[in-house]
C-alpha cells in the first residue's frame, strides 16, 4: 500500500497515534477510523485514559498504551461528563507528554517506524499543545455531527446576547442564527447548568495548529453546513463518515460484552417486524419510564428487541426485567427479547428489524441511517437533541416521542412500523440509505476524503 516507505533501503511502515475520548460513543468511531487506516498500511498505537479503557484483545493488530488520566474516583462516580472530560484534559497533560515523547523517541531510535501524527478526539483538546511541543502534527477527529458543532459554538454567543441562562429550557422558539433548532434542541449537558461546558466548547473548537478536521459525518446529510464550516476554517474539513462502514466487518470495540443470543431470536421474526430499542451507553431511565416502555412495547403488538444496560436505571435500583409485573411479562412473552448489550450494527442490518426507538446518539443515528431503519427519537441530553431534530425535521427519517408514556409509545411504534401515517418516513429512510451508499462507495465523498487524509498523513 501507499504508506509503506523506503528509508535507508528498508521497507518501513508509518505509525499513527490515536487518542480517543474515554466514552463508548467516542471510542467506537476512533477505533473504526484506526482500523481503516491500518488496512491502508499504517501501524496504529492507541493511547488511552485509564477510565473506560478499551479491551486490547479486540484489536490484536493495534498497540494500546494507557496513560494516567488523573481522574479521581469522585470524578468518575460523579457521572458528570463535562467534568470528567475537563479533568482528564487537565490531569493527563504531563503524562500524555511523557507517553508521547517515549513513543516517538523509542521509534526513531529503534529505526522501526516513525510516528507520522496524532489523531485525537476533539474533546481531548490538550493533545494539540502536547503534540505541538513535540513537533508532531495533529489532526482533530469529530465524532458528532456538523449541526451540533455549529450549535455548540453558538452557545457562548447566545449567552453574551442574554438568551442563556434560559427562561425556559423547553422553549419551542427558534434559536436566532440556528433556524432549524428550537431552544429545547440546544446541545447542552444533562445538568442544565452550563458549568464548565462553555469553556469546554471554547477549548474543543479551537483548532489552533491542527492540520485537518476529520469528521464522522457525510456530505449527503450535511453538505451545506460542512461547506459553511470549511469557509471559516483554514485547514481541510474531511467528512469521512460513517467510519464503521470503512472498518472490517469483524471489528468490535464494545466496552460491554455483547449478548449475541438476540441474533438467533431475530432470525425467527418476520421481515421488518421488529422494533429495536436502545438508549446507548450513557442515557438513564427511571423505574416508571422502564415500566411505561415495557407496557407500550407489549401493547404495540410488534415484536421487540430491547437493550436494558446494567446500571441504566437512574434511581440506582438496577431493575431487572424479571422484576416487572408477571402479567406484563406474560403479555409480551416470546414477542420480546431483552438483552443487556446487543451487537447493534448487526442488529440494525438484520432484515427482521424495521424500526429503532433510540436516544439518537450520533453513532446510533449513523448506524440506523446506513441500514435504512426509520427511527422514533427520544433524545436525552447534549447532541442527541440536535440529532433528533435533524432526523425528524431535516432528513425526515424519524419522528419524536414527546413522552415516555405507554399509550404514546404504542402509537409511535405502530405508526413507525405499520400504519399508513408512517409510510413517508419509512420511504425516506430507504432513500437516505441509498444516498449514504453513494458517499461510501469508491469515488464517493467519504471515500475521497479518506484518500485525502491518507495522502496528507503521508506528506508529514
Ligand atoms: C455518546 C453520546 O451520548 C452521544 O450523544 C454522542 O453522539 C456520542 O457519545 P452514546 O450515548 O453511547 O454516545 O450513543 P451512540 O453515539 O449512539 O453510541 C453508542 C454505540 O454503542 C453505538 O456505536 C452502538 O452501536 C453501540 N451499542 C449500543 C452497542 O454496540 N450495543 C448496544 O446494545 C447499544
TrEMBL record:
GO molecular function, one term: quercetin 3-O-glucosyltransferase activity
Protein name per the record: Glycosyltransferase
Listed EC numbers: 2.4.1.-
Family named by the database record: Belongs to the UDP-glycosyltransferase family.
Organism: Carya illinoinensis
Entry keyword set: Glycosyltransferase, Transferase
